[in-house]
Amino acid sequence: MSKLLRCDVCVVGAGSAGLSVAAGAAMLGAHTVLFERGEMGGDCLNYGCVPSKALLAASHAARNVRAAARFGLGAPDVRIDFPAVMAHVRDVIARIAPHDSVERFEGLGVRVIKAAARFAGPKEVEGGGVRVRAKRIIIATGSAAVVPQIRGIDLVPFLTNESIFSLSARPDHLLIIGGGPIGVEMAQAFRRLGSSVTIFQRSRLLPKDEPEFVDLLRAELAAEGIALQEGVEIANVVSSGDEISVALHGQPQPITGSHLLLAAGRRPRLEELDLQKGGVRRTEKGVAVDARLRTSNRRVYALGDVIGGPLFTHAASYQAGIVIRNALFRLPAKADYRALPWVTYTDPELAHVGLSEAQARELLGDRVRVTRADFADNDRAQAEREIAGGIKIITDNKGAILGATVLGSHAGELIQLWALAITRKLKLNALTSLIMPYPTRAEISKTVASAFYAPKLFSLWPKRLVRLLLWLS
């Protein structure tokens, strides 16, 4: 017989989404129970955002050494100590881990049960010898890497985000299936750390981002020696000794490497939850929720990757606020993703928020205006020899901001101003009057805003008005 425990809030899953809800609920005085079968912190801390950005930081440092000559500095070619690089990655995880630890959450008043949980009824979940009856149940079990249906894949050793950061030796040639953000980031990281890299992508690289900036990023990746196989269909994969071969339809020779990384998407973790016992409906994408993140069982909420998107840690944190307002304060808060930014942390970074040009034209037709500015015209970018990319702003013909894309160094920082502008429904003239420090890369935002108004400001009628006012004076 399982021990019965009663509580206000029961959270299943201690990744970014679950921890945010558990911490908020406990700090608001709700009796909270948290189930986690694996590592506290979930994918983001252990297998995703944190280790990938730590690895990228090491690879960027290697690139900076190689590129020192552009500043008149002599430097020998960088020596890569791959085990030391991976030790750096593990150390970063270890430094952040206490914030997500069992000890911290127990200190907040959360009862942490280190076990998998499943529904035992509409109001109950059980696991680890405990049955929990809760007023509100929160599903936050995250996602796992998709294993694509490719002939031979089940007979080949492969890596996912859950295993690649455990490598002890650098891959000689890393084959990556998937050209989305994870695939592209890992491709550049391992290439800069000395591996040969090939990406296989069924469509085009980074299909959700603005094509013109993806074209610029593609050129940067190719210049670094990353082999890009776009628009291809994989016929099969084969393992022979220490080699893995990927055969493509229409190409006579397979491409051979030492390691295979799967980065072809994510799937929600639902298999052990017994959702039907909880009266919770699911779809192919994940747990079905409404705009308030309620499931078909009104006592149960779901958030994060398990609902099928958007698959970002910052989206999960935002959703946690929506869940807390609904579940605890009973406020009808709804998720709104119109100003949700995302970043691919390559070098240069690619960041986006709001509508793309294609989406905006589908909605507004010829009322859409596109304004651009290049980092080649930004003094700080020139001083730092980092002029790749630029900014593209999508507005209506009156200057209302609909979307923004930035390609360049620190694009993930620069996009935040545009996320705020869209959230607050600002027009571009709000940025033209903004005083920005010089020289900064952020000035490109004011540059592009001013460029929108320049054709009207410097047209014939303003010139005539100025001449008239000067004559009258």
What can you see in these coordinates?
The chain is α/β, with parallel strands linked by helices. It has 3 domains: 3-40 and 101-145 and 267-327, FAD/NAD(P)-binding domain, CATH 3.50.50.60; 153-264, FAD/NAD(P)-binding domain (3-Layer(bba) Sandwich), CATH 3.50.50; 342-456, FAD/NAD-linked reductase, C-terminal dimerisation domain (Enolase-like, domain 1). It is 33% helix and 23% strand. The chain contains 14 helices and 21 strands. The longest helix is centred in the N-terminal third of the chain and has 18 residues, at 49-66. The N and C termini lie far apart (94 Å). It comes from Hyphomicrobium denitrificans 1NES1. Belongs to the class-I pyridine nucleotide-disulfide oxidoreductase family. Residues 8-320 form the FAD/NAD(P)-binding domain.
Oligomer: single chain
Please give the CATH architecture of the largest domain: 3-Layer(bba) Sandwich
Give the amount of beta strand, in percent. Answer: 15-25%
* Class by alpha and beta content: alpha/beta
Amino-to-carboxy terminus distance:
94 Å
Radius of gyration, in angstroms, nearest whole number: 25 Å
Number of helices: 14
Largest sheet: 7 strands, mixed
Give the CATH superfamily of the largest domain: FAD/NAD(P)-binding domain
What is the overall shape?
globular
The pLDDT mean sits at 95
Q: Helix fraction?
A: 25-40%
The structural domain count equals 3
Number of strands: 21
- Uncertain runs are none
Pfam families: Pyr_redox_2, Pyr_redox_dim
Family: Belongs to the class-I pyridine nucleotide-disulfide oxidoreductase family.
Binding site for FAD: 53, 141-143
Keywords: Disulfide bond, FAD, Flavoprotein, NAD, NADP, Nucleotide-binding, Oxidoreductase, Redox-active center, Signal
